[in-house]
Specification:
- The chain has helices at about 15-20, 45-65, 70-90, 100-115, 120-130, 130-145, 145-165, 170-175, 180-195, 195-205.
- The chain is globular.
- It is mainly alpha-helical.
Length: about 210
């Protein structure tokens, strides 16, 4: 979260899942995993003051815990996360509200973490224990994309991140994302991004 001097808020991996006793809890909130948006949120002054107040209350509770601290922290953190989700949604119009559908939550988790293992629509559907048709409807309803298009979109986002943040060669990145033929990966990438993987990396790192 950022405003003026701003605040940085860090969570250890798995902390929120444990606190809220819910697997994949963070996947209710698109701002945690939106690869297309800036990681810095810029709320208006009113929202910033509200979030700042909550952050201070959470900090004070952690410094001087009591018997009901877990309940207090759950309530305060949940409110803070909902406020940040609203800020994200307002700033990046493609964002969604709080996700209550557990299937959608799990789908978000799989798209972020299992792309290298689940390489087909059928594999995603099997992991979610739903039919291919059900997965297609879930993707259309929430992302206005077919299941195949949604998976491909995320592959390209992961490819972009790998091209920017790693030294892996283009063929290895494509193979990790399920492309056994480097030329197929290059064609898919060009179709989505308008230039080849090598040209994208070169242009982005100038």
């Amino acid at each position: 979260m950022y405003s003026g001097p701003g605040h940085w808020i860090f969570f250890e991996a798995g902390f929120l899942d444990l606190l809220f006793e819910e697997a994949h809890f963070t996947y209710k909130f698109s701002f945690f995993h939106d690869l297309e948006a800036s990681p810095a949120l810029k709320p208006d002054n009113r929202t910033f003051q509200a979030c700042d107040g909550l952050a201070k209350e959470i900090h004070n509770e952690l410094r001087k815990p009591s018997g009901d601290s877990k309940q207090f922290l759950r309530a305060a953190l949940h409110l803070l996360l909902v406020r940040l989700q609203r800020t994200h949604r307002a700033a990046f119009r493609h964002g969604q509200g709080l996700v209550s559908d557990t299937r959608l939550q799990q789908l978000r988790y799989l798209l972020a973490n299992k792309l290298t293992e689940l390489r087909t629509v059928e594999a995603f559907a099997a992991e979610l224990a739903i039919s291919r048709g059900h997965l297609h409807k879930l993707a259309q309803r929430n992302f206005a994309r077919s299941a195949k298009q949604l998976i491909e979109d995320h592959r390209m986002m992961h490819a972009c991140r790998a091209l920017l943040l790693t030294d892996s060669d283009v063929a290895s990145i494509g193979y990790d994302l399920g492309y056994t033929d480097p030329s197929n990966f290059a064609r898919s990438f060009r179709r989505h991004m308008g230039l080849s993987p090598a040209a994208y990396r070169q242009q982005a790192t100038k």
